Write the structure tokens for this entry.
Amino acid sequence: MKRLQRAFALAVSGVLLTAVLTGCGGNSAASDQGDGERTIVRIGHNQATDHPTHIALLAFEDYIEDKLGDKYDVTVYPSELLGSQTDMVQLTQTGAIDFCVASNSILETFSNDYTLFNLPYLFASSEAYHAAMDDPDITDPIFASTKKAGFEAVTWIDAGTRNFYTVSTPIETPADLKGLKIRVQQSPTNVEMMSRLGGSATPMGFGDVYTALQAKVIDGAENNEMALTSNGHGDVCKYYSYDMHQMIPDILIGNRIFLDEMSAEDRAVFEEGFALVNRIEREEWTEAVEKAKKKAEEEQGVKFLYPDTKPFQEICMPMHQSLIEQYPDLEPIYEGIQMYNKRYPAQAAEGGAEQ
Ligand code: GCU
């Protein structure tokens, strides 16, 4: 079923992408005028329509059209209809579309600064993660680092905690990962993390993971709980292990020219809209994860495991020092995050991991 859905989505996406990019329907590039005077605003992402990200972006669409509906016509394209995240970042870069949601992992290949938020065990708790990501002193320098490349980040989106899940091997210690092919996101940090932990890193796009699991090309993957249900990975993977290795934000990025050319008044409304995306998604997230866990357990037969996270953490920690040595400019931001880690230390039951 999932395979059919994906094949259908891909077929639609090819046609749709051509239509979107060639301006079929009277529109061409990002800042084109739509019906009459309205500017078409295109936003792409890779989640299904039941995902908090989609719900938040629809709220953005409503907000902008409510406030500035005479000027802007916003359309949200879910489910990789406009291509993979890497494709969508490139489309946003060139202005073929105006916004997309990309995992922070993917952005690492566009700016080294993003590497910081991809570090395993960077944040001590969800509270520290949220507080740090809400602090402009921490995010602003990183969010602006791709301006020259044609895009900038306008807000971050919670994507929970990433954990390992496998078809048939319970992961209780790093040794259990040995010899397993685990899909990771296409980022050097993720590949290094996986190699250090002893598994065989298999980088691939998100949309290819379900088929790869089903065909046993890979033994498992790592993600938040939503991947089990919203993407169906729990149909194939029966063990989900809370090793809590990363809290990687998703980032809403926008085309720089589109943002810079907007009037100050319109930009102020868009800024309110970006803040709304962050707020709505976070409000939806907690409940969505609880529902996903329940569904995975009760309907898909996924077993949730709560290993001691320390052995995983100890193996990954040297990556922090290496990153600071490689990119010394990131040190003040790294230290800023440590301040939040002290203020909000790890909780005993952090993220559902009953340790
Ligand atoms: C999460 C994240 C996505 C990302 C995906 C992945 O679902 O929210 O932005 O693409 O993980 O593992 O690729």
